Amino acid sequence: MEKKDTPDWYEPPAPEGSYRSILKLGKPDEIKHPSDSWRSMVTEELGLDEDYFGKRKHQEGDGTVSIDRPIGLSQAHITALEALVGAENVATDDYSRVKFSYGKLLDEAIELRREEVSSICDVVVHPRDKNDVRAIVTYCHEQRIPVTAFGGGSSVTSGLRPERGGIVLALCTHMNKVLAIHEKNQTAVVQPGLMTPDYEDALNNARARYGTAHDYTCGHFPQSFPLCSVGGWVPTLATGQASTYYGDAYDIVFSQEYVTPVGSFKTHDFPATATGPKVGDIMKGSEGAFGVLVEVTYKIFRYIPENRQYFGFLFPSWEDAVTAGREVMQGEFGHPAVFRISDGEETETVLKMYGNDLVSRFLEMRGFKKLQRCLVLGTAEGEKHFAKHVKQMVKKISRRNGAMYVSGLPTKMWEKDRYSHPLLREDMMDVLRALKRHFDPYNIMNPGSLLGLELPEDQKR
């Protein structure tokens, strides 16, 4: 097959101070373009023209952020906030107001590409520590000023939108440190604005940085890993790709400290108690409605990646894969860290991106039918004999349920790229925005509108 010409993708880092620099996923210079096989798959599946990805782009959000939206707080309020945290930690410029009022929801990205702004805060405050947060929340409560907390900004639920203006607390600027590692309890005390990759890196190198006897891992790997802060795990009750083994945010939180409009409180850092009701449990998943998280103690785990076992299977059907997964989880031999089942459609996408027609025909001959076969990726972690035993048991159960072992290579490939695939969104939206639009991009009655496709009337439901 003749290689397609490479489209004119957006290459440079987003201009400083631009809307694109806010909406972009990943680091400013982090770019991932769709591969030739990916583009071929999409054009074939959606019936697009061969030159679809070569169309000229526009509305990329390159413009400098500039809004005609007056600040809703008086100068007296701004002066008071500056007195609390220092003038250098209070921002009222257009860029700051927009940046800290937006998350990563697709709707928000579309708005910013169109250089349109809806809900926006009045002032961004960068607290230096929990005492600053306490002073700010107390003042805002007395003056009836809305407060929104901002950690990493990875929300895809519009959870960061300051619908009533007010101030945003940018916790990631200063409150981003590991405060302590307690080896006896195997816990770490952290500030909420610490970004998850920085936290994991600090734990992975704990012996060199903190003089501990072991290196550690946080055990928490959500899809938003590169973009989220550790303080965001608790109020959103986050889960991750290895939570089967390590537990999700609910399981690894030992202690929390909050600032609320009526006072501050901190729970004890006990892993469990026989008393109740538990205040800590009430705060988990509260979405920030009850107060601002200013400190948290997490359980941590020994970091021994050399013991990690990889495996992958292809199952004849979704039912077979789920049955095997249930037996694995109920087998009482220990849990894998990752046990990821792709349905038939996702499996076909993977095979088209990385496989070829010969592989597909071979699988068909073996009884693994298109759109029925399901790929399972997994890992086992921990002490080396434990990890090996878990893998052996998973293989035994999977084969008993009709699976073909495909080695650990697919899992290693997924692990390598698992956080970079969302970066394709920028290129895709550059192309989508180039189409002449006859309908609203938010038209949920016609999801094909985002691709410039008009669905038949009987499918617009």
Describe it for me?
With 461 residues, the protein is an alpha+beta fold. 32% of the residues lie in helices and 14% in strands. The protein folds into four domains: 75-170, Uridine Diphospho-n-acetylenolpyruvylglucosamine Reductase, domain 2; 178-302, Uridine Diphospho-n-acetylenolpyruvylglucosamine Reductase, domain 3, CATH 3.30.465; 307-417, FAD-linked oxidase, cap domain/gating helix (Vanillyl-alcohol Oxidase, Chain A, domain 3), CATH 3.40.462.40; 435-459, no CATH class. It has helices at 19-23, 36-46, 75-85, 94-99, 106-113, 130-143, 196-204, 206-210, 243-246, 249-252, 279-283, 318-329, 344-354, 357-365, 384-400, 409-417, 424-432; strands at 90-91, 123-125, 147-150, 167-170, 178-182, 187-190, 216-217, 253-260, 263-266, 292-299, 301-302, 309-315, 338-341, 374-380, 404-405. A five-stranded antiparallel β-sheet has the order 5-6-10-8-9. The chain has a four-stranded mixed β-sheet with strand order 1-2-4-3. A four-stranded antiparallel β-sheet has the order 13-14-12-15, with helices on both faces. Helix 12 (318-329) runs antiparallel to helix 15 (384-400). Mean pLDDT is 90; it is low at 435-461.
